[in-house]
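Example (one chain per record):
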Amino acid sequence: MDINEIMNRAKAAQAQALASLHETEEKAEALASASSPEPAAPPEEAAAREAEQMAANAQRQVEILGQVFDGQTMAQMAANEEQLQQMMEQRVAEAASASTEAVMNQLFGEDMGVLAAALETLAMNDDCEGEDLDEEEETDDALYTLLDETMARLEALPEPAPVEYGRDPALWGRFGILLSGIVSTLNDHSLDGLDVEEHIPVLEQQVLSMVRRSWGIDGRGGLLETLRYLSQGGYTERYRFYCEAETPEELMTGDEDEDDREGVVRAWAFAQHYKERYSPAFMAGWDVGRAAMLARWGSYLGWITPEEAQGILWDLAQRAAQDLGGWREFAQSYLFGGLMWKLLCNSPAAGYLGYLADAATTLLVGKADGSGGQWRDFAWPARRRLGFTL
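Predicted structure:
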């Protein structure tokens, strides 16, 4: 799939979103017209009564909240409300003179395809709810060629030489956060610290919804279980099993439907194609990168403490430093695991690989506007002896 095809799909997604928005607006107007009674009083009197009723309701809510929360909590809630209101007023002011299409672009970014990639990347769990594959557009051999070419382009990018971190917890902590770089870049998350976003209610709800929808995780227990899977096995072990299997049938349980069976066959063929070139340890970047993102999300949502998240990132950092040699290899590993996941889900993969490569390039090189470049500015840790402890 070339860039023109990707852009055409992005434009189609944008057009569909705009059409849905217009349809929603029309339905809302029709509903409002049908449900609005004939005014029984002049508009000025009706507006005055409505304002009076709203003020009374607001006062009642304040009284009820005052009976439940203490003064400090009420003050914090008021501050959060004011901050959210200011943010919304700013967004409205920016969009006030814009067209509907411009507003959509402000909300979702300049390219709807970027939004699609971000949402798709969030869904990198091991449950495949994939799309129907158009075999005429993508063959497995073509995807292997695309992967090899993309990995070669990443290999040609500059990268600082690895350095010794020693026992410096600040360096290892920063490294652990940057391991979430690809997903963070696709979702425009901050990479400056442990928190992925500011602690504003609307942003917290957005992250919560994404994690629930994409990973099926709804709290501490599910988060820790998934992190344990990614850190102790994940796709590293799955790739190992697929490399060692003599036939794809050995990997099936008998409960798969036709689409699942085809996915197993394609993933097995992928492992057989690459097993002489890449060991299971090469899959570490795919598992570690996703686990690092989940640890940061979990801390942001309060499911684990910041100290727990830092401990998890520490362990992930040790594994990454031991199994991989640099940011470019980490990015290549991420693409490698991403393609196996897509094949196992029997889903299109060419555009997806392109989005991952773009994010890695932003991290390694930076953008023209000066953003990005976080990997360029922070060297990978030099390889160390086994058994090193802080």
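Caption: The longest helix spans residues 3-35.
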